[in-house]
């Protein structure tokens, strides 16, 4: 997994949204205080920071419910 992806996710996306980046990649984002509005902000921020477009069929909270799942998705999408 690319450290630059994790760096951008932690230090830009999560910081911009004022969300604590969890130490454990399996911690549910719901435990971090992300609700439905926060989820949309997270998606928009990721699309902007990583210059990607996440297809509508991928916009399921279950696909992005932990930082581990997000990192895997971004790694597969950006490489």
In short:
The protein is built from three helices and no strands. With 79 residues, it is mostly helical.
Structure characterization notes:
With 79 residues, the protein is mainly alpha-helical. The chain has three helices and no strands. The chain is globular and about 25 Å long. Helix 1 (3-16) crosses helix 2.
Q: How many individual helices? A: 3
Fraction in helix:
40-55%
Task: Name the helix and strand elements from N-terminus to C-terminus, one letter apiece.
Answer: HHH
Stretches where pLDDT falls below 50 for ≥5 residues? none
- Please state the structural category: mainly alpha
Structure keywords:
mainly alpha; 79 residues
Write the layout of secondary structure elements.
Elements: H1 3-16, H2 36-50, H3 67-78
Helix pairs in contact: 1-2
């Amino acid at each position: 997994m690319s450290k630059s992806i994790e760096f951008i996710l932690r230090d830009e996306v999560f910081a911009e949204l004022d969300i604590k980046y969890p130490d454990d990649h399996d911690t549910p984002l719901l435990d971090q205080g992300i609700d439905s509005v926060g989820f949309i902000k997270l998606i928009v921020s990721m699309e902007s920071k990583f210059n990607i477009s996440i297809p509508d069929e991928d916009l399921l909270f279950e696909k992005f419910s932990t930082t581990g799942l997000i990192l895997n998705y971004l790694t597969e999408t950006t490489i």
